[in-house]
Amino acid sequence: MVYEQWLSNFTDWRPVTTAWRDFSIAESISEQETKETYERLLKKMKKDYKLLTELVMILNHKSFQHSEIPGHNRLCELYSNLFASTYDYACNTLKGDELDYFLTVTD
Predict the structure, then answer these.
(1) How far apart are CA 105 and CA 86, in angstroms?
(2) Intervals of the chain under pLDDT 70
(3) How many Cβ atoms sit within 10 Å of the Cβ of residue 7?
(4) What is the C-alpha R_g of the chain?
(5) Are the C-beta atoms of residues 44 and 51 closer than 8 Å to each other?
């Protein structure tokens, strides 16, 4: 199932980037590639609160996805850690309407 189709089962929010696909490609290569993909995406996306929100959503969903697959504990843990640190970054950085948007979408 395509990420956007799966997501439509739970929310009205829709991604606008290729980050899900980027992570899927990276994780098929290596854990290190996944970390490097995260660093690239964070550098680009942290400048825009909507993109940062999307990144947090994807990290959370990737963690959930890998928690459901036997033998994917390391990827689940990696995504969980990246989610937690990015979520904290957003909560500590965003202000006003941007923080409201972030908290509404990620709730």
Answers:
(1) 15
(2) 1-14
(3) 18
(4) 13
(5) yes
Nearest to 105 by CA among 42, 5, 12: 12
- Whole-angstrom CA distances from 73 to 33, 58, 76, 89 are 17, 17, 5, 24
Q: Are the beta carbons of 53 and 101 closer than 8 angstroms?
A: yes
Tell me which residue has tokens 């941007």.
98
- By residue count, the chain amounts to 107
Q: How many helices (H) and strands (E) does the chain have?
A: 6, 0
Q: Is 30 exposed, middle or buried (0-12, 13-18, 19+ CB in 10 A)?
A: exposed
pTM for the full predicted model? 0.87
- Largest Cα–Cα separation, the chain: 41
